[in-house]
Amino acid sequence: MTTVADVVVDGLARAGTPRLFTAARDNALLEAAGRRALAIVHTRTETAACVMGAVTGRLADAPGAVVIAGDPAAARDGVTSAWLARCPVVVVSTGVAVPESLHTVTKAVLSIGRESAGHWIAHACQLAMKEPRGPVHLQIPDEIGGAAALPVATTCRPAPLPSPEPEALDAAARLIAAATRPLLVVGLQCRSEDDAAWLRAFAEALPAPALVTPNAKGALPDPHPLVIGTLGTSSREADLVAEADLIVAIGLDPLEAPRSGWPATTPILHLAAASPETPPTASVVGEIGLVLEELAPRLRERRAADWDVARLHALKQALGSAPSGDEPEVSAYRVVELARAVAPAGTVAVFDLDRALSAAMRAWQAVAPGECVASVSRGIGFALPAAMAAQLARPDRPTIGFTTRRLLAAAADELDTVAALGLPIIMVVLDDGMPSVLTRARSAGLAAIDADGATALEATLGRLVGRRQGAVVETQV
Questions:
Q1: Is the pTM of this model over 0.85?
Q2: What's the per-residue H, E or C state across 191-216?
Q3: Which CATH superfamily is domain 4-144 in?
Q4: I want to staple 78 with a disulfide (CB 3.0 to 4.6 A). Which of 47, 155, 257, 313 is the partner?
Q5: Angstrom distances, CA of residue 394 to CA of 7, 24, 101, 345
Q6: What would the DSSP string read from start to end of 77-94?
Q7: SS3 at position 447
Q8: Sign of the torsion formed by the C-alpha atoms of 68, 70, 71 and 77
């Protein structure tokens, strides 16, 4: 007999979902996942399950999946994090009604019936992946999870975006041709390798400098001379923005735009997979790679941009340099810089949201999409579950998480999850004056190392990365 739970799990699998995350131990959906051979990862908390589902959705380019068996309100922090980071994830709950507080941080709250299971799981997966991406909550009444259901052939992936409008492309080309100092601002919708290839060709053809948002790091290689810095990590970026006579926002989500906004007199061209919330000077909507491909022949006769190369080099050096005057920021920057120096190419870095870590993120040089995962939610202990999800999604690559004692303590129960899964993640923990977490790490069966000072940290990380050994490393540099 095919049950409602079977139909839901089958829909997730056909959408490309690689695994389910849950803090539950007994549930009809989990039983159905076992029958479908869909991997199940058990976490200690609903927040961690949601963070892991969201990061999985982002890195797998498919909807992540979370199963909540108790009160859905327990998942609010994790769902909010997925909402703010625009991560595609389907959160499935059973029994308890979804509280109103979750309606504001999900794209939709849907309820399944016996006859409609196939329709609603397909709709949930498509909606989660549709730009702007985000969490969708799917509620299954307790009494129907194990009830018989009729399998229905449904498409669980969203339809391809329509081709960009020729008139919009022509208008965009005219704006770019008229600009002498265009500035590219690259956002989180630039996720794929295809997008990355066209972005680099586009930037070099103009040529135009670029600022990349934290969740788009790697879409253009950070070491590239045209990548001036990471948006929002230095006050010096305002100098670059002020000199531009056109801002070309590529795949930029409204949540990534500067809080202070752009200069009022500077025209803005929006190239993205979804229409902008605030009307720019001009916009083209479509697949990012295709939009840039279609723009290329329209810009063949355009004269080269007239940026001062020496000035751009100086700004890149300034935006990428270590902070000065603030001891926690200087220390955090040096820690990340040392880790980047010993980590092999392709290493995935995960950052908790902290003032010092946000400033230090620019020390992590990413060269491909998905090599940097940054939290957008304060205080939830994001880095540890996110690092686990990244390691599961990309098992052939090392994963290093950067956090503080306080933020790791917020997710300390998940240290047991790391040990249970045997994941070789390295958590680098900054001393923020809170109690040490090393004893808790040892009690979970993990290697716990105190590596104070640059020399000790460099040697420790080099050894751990080389052996693919998981550990919690506390440091103060």
A1: yes
A2: CCHHHHHHHHHHHHHCCCCEEECHHH
A3: Thiamin diphosphate (ThDP)-binding fold, Pyr/PP domains (3.40.50.970)
A4: 47
A5: 28, 25, 33, 13
A6: HHHHHHHHTT--EEEEEE
A7: strand
A8: negative
